[in-house]
Amino acid sequence: MMHPSAPAGPWPVSRVVKAAALLVVAVLSLPAAEPAPPFQKVIFTVLNTDSAEFEGFARQAAAVRATHLTISDLPKSRWQWERDLNDPYPNWGMMVPTLFKVVVPPALKQYLPADYAAKNLAIIKERAAVLQRLGIRAVFRGKEPAWLPSEVYDEHPEWRGPRVEHPRRARNAYYAPCIDQPEVLAIYREAVRELCRQAPIDDFEFLTNDSGGGFCWSRSLYPGRNGPSWCEAIPHAQRIVRFLSTIQAGARDSGCTVDASLFYGAGVIASEEVAAIVAGLSPRQWVNGRSSSGTAPTVRVGLHPFYNHMYPVFGIYLPEEMARRLQEAVADKAAAVELNFSRPDSPIEFALWRAFLADPGGRGMVGRMALLRRTAVGFVGEAQADGLVDAWHELQRAIDTAQTISPDPILMVGAVNQRWITRPFVPFPAELEPAERDYFRRFQFQATSEEEANDLMNLQGFTPIKGYSGGLLASQSVNEVLNRLDRALRSLGQVAAATDRPAAAAELRATEKRVRTLACLYRTARHAIQYQAILDQTDYEQPLVERTIYPLEGDQRLRDLQRVTRAEVDNTQELIRLVETAGTTRILLLAPTEAEEDIFLLNPNLVPQLKKKIEIMLRHELDSHRLYERRQG
């Protein structure tokens, strides 16, 4: 019997020929498939703000042969900081996902906010569903073992593992759970089982010994090796392998076979420890990019979303660094690459990846520049390609120089965490009234004392730039950064004006705005460094004696302080202009709402704070006359 859906009879030959012809036209009109990448896995990662943005990014990723997407960029766990707003340290940990921030096992339900976790799980499920429709697999990046509220250990004292806070950056002790406790491993397995049941995941990677997380008796724990005495003798490699195997077992319970890896945030302290762990790893397990077979599973390409030398400026990319890292990944025969995009709609980063896929064989500087030029030709045309490559190169050299200023990105730990951007530079900061201080002080990363908080160069308990010599050397480095940024800006402007491609011109003009903002922030950094260097040369205890000699130049420190003050007032005014004229171009990573401002995110209503900074600096400008002899002439 004929099936009801079958045609009544054979098609006429003419209809068959016509259908075949239409099929050929349709196939020919499809965009050519991108060449296969030279890696087993290609992971795309980006900061996402909503579901539409994520899906758009995922579709672009699928079109250029990505195999995996990271789905664990989640809202901050601000509840961790709100336990004690006087302690800044949870700001590190609350930006990093953990398993119990997504799935709360029954044993922890009375201690952790279930509504927060439920919202995160819903985000994860939604993203995983998008990836399943596109044939892409999911990656979960987080931190483990992560600290738990003290109430957990009041009820279960045997679960208390190591202290994991940074002793110079925290006012409270924070404890991660002891992974050597079978009950703790059981709740981890339960959480992974439920997570993978709700959202199939292919790859788990956890930061550890950092940001409020860590393993018992690891050498690289911030407070030093510590933990409960009963488990000190357990071989550390056994502890790590057992944890990673628990993660894999939980995934397997839900039908997922996963890779599981750890990255030591302070791994440089524990290189011998890492080497001992690697030798005993089981299949599909890695620590610090190494497996028992010696292979590197993942090479990172692109910038960390906030731990980089352009944060908090949004959306700037480094094509030269991206090209170099891709070359190295091919040369090292890496199993996978993870591309961290500056934003979901980044046309140049996608263009560079496509150019690399078309020809991944370039080597060294010559090959790298050839890849950049091919990308530039495709973006702005042959005539303007060299100018665009020049701009990228100057931007890269600027950021390479910025890396020499401080061990941590100076804009992150200084301009943002110490609020140089919005904080007034005054000679007597301790005398500021609450109305002049509170708007920045409560979002300033300073843990131990008000005296340290008043020092512009105290960067989370660390003073890498101190005194005249330190200020001089750091200022010279910042000057070089600014010179390179200025050259990049000139090239970007010339190419944007000359290219005949409107979309490319619009992208380059947006990049110009971002780079000008970046230059403003580096000038603020230079002024903060110079201002504090002058104060460091000042004896506040020595009574001021002013002579009545005429003419008299006065104290050079006073002239220098006045110069820096005026320069920062003018620079802040320029930043106000950039923010107010940015239009639809997003130039800074800011808190979504005023209520969500924290130590890593500036207030979204930034301009009033910048104006307040100028007002306070001008109001206290003459306070320096109490310290230095004035000019008479």
What would your notes on this structure say?
With 633 residues, the protein is an alpha/beta fold. It has 3 domains: 120 residues, no CATH class; 229 residues, no CATH class; 226 residues, no CATH class. 47% of the residues lie in helices and 7% in strands. The chain contains 20 helices and 10 strands. The chain has an 8-stranded parallel sheet. α8 links the parallel β6 and β7. α2 packs parallel to α5, α8 packs across α9 and α11 packs across α12. The N terminus is likely disordered.
Question: Key features?
Answer:
disordered N terminus, 633 residues, 3 domains, 10 strands, globular, alpha/beta, 8-stranded parallel beta sheet, two-stranded antiparallel ribbon, 20 helices
Number of discrete helical segments:
20
Show unreliable segments.
1-31
The percentage helix is: 40-55%
The count of strands amounts to: 10
Largest sheet: 8 strands, parallel
What proportion of the residues form beta strands (DSSP E)? 5-15%
- Indicate the structural class: alpha/beta
What is the CA-CA span between the terminal residues? 113 Å
Mean pLDDT: 92
Main sheet strand line-up: 8-7-6-3-2-1-10-9
* Principal-axes shape call: globular
Instruction: Output the helix-strand order.
Output: HEHEHHHEHEEHEHEHEEHEHHHHHHHHHH
Q: In total, how many domains does the architecture comprise?
A: 3
Gyration radius (Cα, Å) is: 28 Å
